[in-house]
Design a protein that fits this description.
single chain, Rossmann fold, 8 helices, 7 strands, 41% helix, 14% strand, globular
């Protein structure tokens, strides 16, 4: 028998969600959308001032400044969320860092920075959150990129990290198949975020290569990707586990 949801249905009602990178871009859009759809949001980012401005539009939410590049900060963020709200149902690893660098001129620190925010931090957050998510029958939505599925120019560190997030998601999905837990990953294409609009190309960059990154239908609004994340986090996606969702405005269609 077909089941239809009532008018005003909030698919995330009753869920406590920890969302990273909420000071701008995709993380901010996701925090606002989750609140609209009934979730209680605990947001973390490094920029406290920008985060506070975002959370003016996140009713009932809380936010705190943490650097997810530090393992202890990841553990502290999870514990603060649970201490404030008594549970954790959803972890969304939306924070991202992308600086274009030619591989021959990348420093060791450039590589470390790419991995810290885009892969190592999400791993530590997943590990810290897992006991609470297992207890709640919750789920994880990781955010990779189309760069986690293919190569991208001047982005060897970023691509490596984003491929790693896809691998981490699949590994967790297999490891916890028999548990009350779901793990999925979203791979966005280009979005109109500060990280994209304010980027600086490497010196003597080949712009023909750079322009291949863009989708033929143009840049997306972050909320378009946030909607995919919200769906995967909801009980409407109860049968979806270990999936890789590409949300790229047609970039992969050709």
């Amino acid at each position: 028998m077909t089941s239809y949801q009532p008018l005003g249905y909030q698919p995330l009602a009753g869920k406590v969600a920890l969302i990273t990178g909420v000071s701008s871009g995709l993380g901010a859009a996701t925090a606002k959308l989750f609140a609209e759809r009934g979730a209680t949001v605990f947001g973390i980012a490094r920029d406290a001032e920008r985060m506070a401005a975002v959370f003016a539009d996140v009713p009932g939410g809380r936010h705190a400044s943490f650097d997810i590049g530090r393992p202890q900060a990841c553990r502290d963020a999870v514990e603060q969320c649970v201490a404030e709200f008594g549970r954790l149902d959803v972890l969304v690893n939306a924070a991202g860092y992308h600086q274009m660098r030619h591989t021959l001129t990348m420093t060791d620190q450039d590589w470390d920075d790419d991995l810290a925010v885009n892969l190592t931090g999400p791993f530590h957050l997943c590990r810290a959150a897992l006991p609470h998510l297992l207890a709640a029958g919750g789920n994880i939505v990781n955010v990779s990129s189309v760069a986690g599925l293919e190569g991208e120019v001047y982005s060897s560190g970023y691509c490596a990290a984003k491929h790693g997030i896809v691998g981490l998601t699949r590994a967790l999905a297999v490891e916890f198949t028999a548990e009350r837990l779901r793990v999925n990953v979203v791979c966005p294409g280009g979005m109109s975020t500060p990280q994209v609009t304010e980027f600086a190309a490497p010196e003597n960059a080949d712009w023909n290569l750079i322009m291949r990154i863009a989708a033929p239908r143009g840049m997306m609004d972050p909320v378009d990707v946030a909607k995919a994340i919200a769906f995967l986090a909801s009980d409407d996606a109860a049968a979806i586990h270990g999936s890789v969702y590409r949300v790229d405005n047609g970039k992969g269609a050709g």
